[in-house]
What we know:
Elements: H1 2-15, H2 36-39, H3 46-49, H4 55-59, E1 62-66, H5 77-83, E2 90-94, H6 103-108, H7 111-128, E3 133-138, H8 140-150, E4 162-166, H9 180-187, E5 189-191, E6 205-207, H10 208-227, E7 229-230, E8 236-242, H11 251-259, E9 260-261, E10 269-273, H12 291-309
Parallel strand pairs: 1-2, 1-3, 3-4, 4-8, 7-9, 8-10
Antiparallel strand pairs: 5-6
Helix pairs in contact: 8-10, 9-10, 10-11
Amino acid sequence: MKQFATLFFLFLVLAGCEKEPKITDTMLDGEVVFDPSVYQPEKYLVSLAKPSPSPADAQKPVIVAIHGYSASTFEWDEFRKWSGNRNDFSISQVLMGGHGRTYEDFKNASWEDWRKPVEEEYTRLEQAGYQNISLAGSSTGCAIITEMIANGFFNNRVKPKNIFLIDPIVVPSDKFLTLVGVAGPVVGYIEADNTTEEDKHYYHFRPYETLKELRELINLVRKDLEKGIVLPAGSQLKVYKSKIDETADPVSAVMLYKGIKTSDNKPIEVSMVDSDLHVFTRLDLRKSVTAKDLENQRQTFEEIASRLTR
């Protein structure tokens, strides 16, 4: 009875919330600030920057980097900056469908829409002749990659050489996601605790419709992991997971370890990172960054680059 009363009280609180967010022009949610890849996609996508690679360039590693739910290409900017003027690999920062534009675009996009630009970039790279393609995801970007493997997207295609998952979400830390089907239509949206600068790169308001899509995606991934996922032949996968994560429960790493095997039935690699940040590789605009955070980022970027080029 006490539990019912608590839930009923929560319902009344949610019912009192405004259904439409108050969006300003300084937010990604509005109609002024868009992700820069919308205007100049050739600066973010290798397939558009070099649609006709030389034989040598076609053999160089390309890593397709995918951001998380409610984020943008900004989430992988630091990896591009860190790589500097290196010419031994290239980075394709993909903007997931429905992201990086208005609140309504975000609200109306399904998780299949989120996935579509990732599939399109991979296909363009393959058709252009690139042979050494890898994938990196952060948070929900990891779920997109895992689902693509599970549904056979890479069958009869160039196989990804390396797959890197940064703070993947399989089990959410915030259990509100399990209640979104009931509470979502009442509350309409949830509000993120972003800084003013973060609001230019991450949605401030997250419509319940998008949370339902996120829940559907990770539930699908969880079921795929329970059945067992086999990586494409020759592909290697490594998980990097913060030990403390308020968004993606660390048990997500355990589920991935148990649920994915290489094509020769070997376990994947998992590294538990001494961090309390979600997507610990993104440090720009954080309210506080420690020396340990910087070291975690550096070590991870160095390992990714080393695996790409060996």
